[in-house]
Amino acid sequence: MQKPEYYEKLIRNVPDFPKKGIQFKDITTLIKDPKGLQNAIEDLGSAFKTKKISKVVGIESRGFIFGAGLALKLGVGFVPIRKPGKLPAKTVSMEYSLEYGKDKIEMHEDAISKGEKVLVIDDLLATGGTLQAAAKLVEKLGGVVAGVGCVIELTESLHGRDLLKGYDVVSLVKIPVHE
Ligand code: AMP
Questions:
Q1: By the number of CB atoms within 10 A of the CB, which of 3, 32, 79, 179 ranks highest?
Q2: Considering the chain, what percentage of its residues have pLDDT values greater than 70?
Q3: Per-residue pLDDT tens for 83-114?
Q4: d(C-alpha 30, C-alpha 15), whole Å
């Protein structure tokens, strides 16, 4: 298990992207490191290894990178959650609130079976709105959210974890939102 500082060092902070005041956490520097991606997958994988996960759901687009890696690690299938209009077959959708306005995510309606234990993965937890909507989408199909995982959790003034109460939430590094 790597220490949080290990991950913090490998994540690039890009101030004022995509707009002024946002400290963007860029995981491309972590995943281009020869061991960075592998360690992230190993550590998230061991956090959930006793949970009898049978499917990993990853959120577009950075959640695909870690989610697909975890599915390989856990020896289970991978399911993409995408922005509206991207998935070709019949979908179920979930709307959620953003700071300004609303957003929507979709998943194929046959992606999850009833009672299946699902791990939901994204790169970063900020307000928690995206991961909460993804968890609800899994539950809409009768899946059981056995865990929620991310690499980075933004803390202080953002309370993403509160929105995800009741779920087993694991992050590899916590970083204050303005750092
Ligand atoms: P939220 O729904 O507020 O928890 O936001 C999480 C989603 O927005 C994730 O898919 C992240 O990739 C993205 N995101 C939000 N804030 C940041 C940030 N400061 N740096 C990088 N990605 C972010």
A1: 79
A2: 100
A3: 999 999 999 999 999 878 999 999 999 999 99
A4: 17
Active site residue 95: no
Q: What is the largest CA-CA distance in the chain?
A: 43
The response to whether residue 132 sits with its C-beta less than 6 Å from ligand 1 reads no
Token couple for 45: 């994988």
Catalytic residue among 62, 106, 116, 153: 62
Which residues, 6+ apart, have CB-to-CB distance to 64 below 8 Å?
Answer: 58, 80
Q: Which pLDDT does position 100 carry in this prediction?
A: 81
DSSP letter for each residue of 127-145: SSHHHHHHHHHHHHTT-EE
For residue 156, how far is its CA from the centre of ligand 1 (angstroms)? 15
Q: Is any atom of ligand 1 closer than 6 Å to the C-beta of 135? A: no
123 lines ligand 1 (CB under 6 A): yes
- Give me the residue spans of the domains in the chain: 4-176
Mean pLDDT score across all residues of the chain: 97
Asked whether residue 162 carries a pLDDT value surpassing 90, the answer given is: yes
Query: Which class in CATH covers the domain with range 4-176?
Result: alpha beta
Is 82 an active-site residue? Answer: no
Number of CB atoms found within 10 A of residue 29's CB: 15
